[in-house]
Amino acid sequence: QVQLVESGGGLVQAGGSLRLSCAASGIIFSINAMGWYRQAPGKQRELVAVITSVGSTNYADSVKGRFTISRDNAKNTVYLQMNSLKPEDTAVYYCNARIQTFVGADYWGQGTQVTVSS
Fold first, then answer.
1. Is 38 helix (H, G, I), strand (E, B) or coil?
2. CA atoms of 46 and 35, how far apart (whole Å)
3. Could you report the per-residue pLDDT of 58-82, keeping only the tens digit for each?
4. Of 1, 68, 76, 100, which is the most buried if we count CB atoms within 10 A?
């Protein structure tokens, strides 16, 4: 049974920073891409950032220059450093990973709330 457990969300003022973490556990042969998505109330879930197994990254235009995604392959963990936060960054943030166990599949975390006050 593979699980993704997120941590690090919370309430922060505009201009502040937060760091999200997401750790994968269970029977894992390998992890390909890992990423962060977010969903604001009344909106569709959107990609925030993704990182491949070799460290290539891609970001949504709205977070470029403010957010940084990274991963620790030894710990099966992905991070999202969020700086210069804006009220429009308020959302539930979800971790996603393409994990190879006995079969390959996408896994999701439970979500962590990030609220940015103006």
1. strand
2. 11
3. 999 999 999 999 999 999 999 999 9
4. 76
